[in-house]
């Protein structure tokens, strides 16, 4: 995988297409995780999410440094696809009678997932303005499925720092989603 990423950085367009068979199962597993959190009868299927994400990844002008970097970018792409899909469904804004949920509930069990995903995206966007690294850690852990060690490598900090900042970010996001300042 690293060799294909290197060849892609060097301008070999075939390298990125050769990468798909190597990463497909991991991308599919990540998409399955996301789709388990979605409502029954969701119009976007895991396979479609993988293919859409891969099309965007292959067409992106990104020099993937390594496996962790590739999956970190993939996490962001999948998050953006799900957020765009949720927003296109025209869900009501937060506070319009929707049940309050925690970040863990929204990501793992998906109470009203379309609006939850949009609410989390909105809160993460605000967090990124306050502390970009904490927002990135949340994205990599919850949306990217990366481990603490992989996340630490991707953002350039220790796993202990990832754990500490993730705890803070979860609390901040829960407060933000509950309407706090």
Secondary structure: elements and pairs:
Layout: H1 2-9, H2 13-36, H3 46-59, H4 67-88, H5 103-108, H6 113-130, H7 132-143, H8 148-155, H9 159-177
Would you write up a description of this structure?
- The protein is mainly α and 181 residues long.
- The protein has one domain.
- It has 9 helices and no strands.
- The longest helix has 24 residues.
- It starts with a helix and ends with a helix.
Instruction: Tell me the helix content.
Output: over 70%
Approximate shape:
globular
Total helices: the number is: 9
Order of helices and strands: HHHHHHHHH
In short:
The protein has helices at residues 2-9, 13-36, 46-59, 67-88, 103-108, 113-130, 132-143, 148-155, 159-177.
Keywords:
181 residues; mainly alpha; single chain
């Amino acid at each position: 995988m690293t060799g294909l990423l290197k060849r892609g950085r060097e301008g070999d367009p075939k390298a990125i297409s050769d990468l798909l068979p190597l990463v497909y199962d991991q991308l599919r597993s990540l998409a399955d995780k996301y789709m388990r959190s979605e409502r029954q009868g969701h119009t976007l299927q895991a396979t479609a999410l993988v293919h859409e994400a891969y099309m965007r990844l292959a067409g992106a002008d990104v020099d993937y440094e390594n496996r962790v970097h590739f999956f970190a970018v993939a996490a962001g792409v999948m998050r953006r696809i799900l957020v765009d899909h949720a927003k296109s469904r025209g869900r009501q804004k937060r506070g319009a009678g929707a049940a309050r949920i925690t970040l863990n509930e929204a990501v793992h069990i998906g109470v009203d997932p379309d609006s939850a995903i949009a609410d989390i995206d909105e809160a993460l966007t605000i967090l990124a303005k306050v502390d970009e690294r904490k927002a990135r850690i949340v994205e990599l852990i919850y949306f990217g499925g990366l481990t603490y060690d992989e996340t630490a490598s991707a953002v350039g900090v220790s796993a202990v720092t990832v754990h500490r900042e993730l705890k803070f970010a979860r609390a901040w996001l829960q407060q933000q989603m509950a309407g706090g300042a």
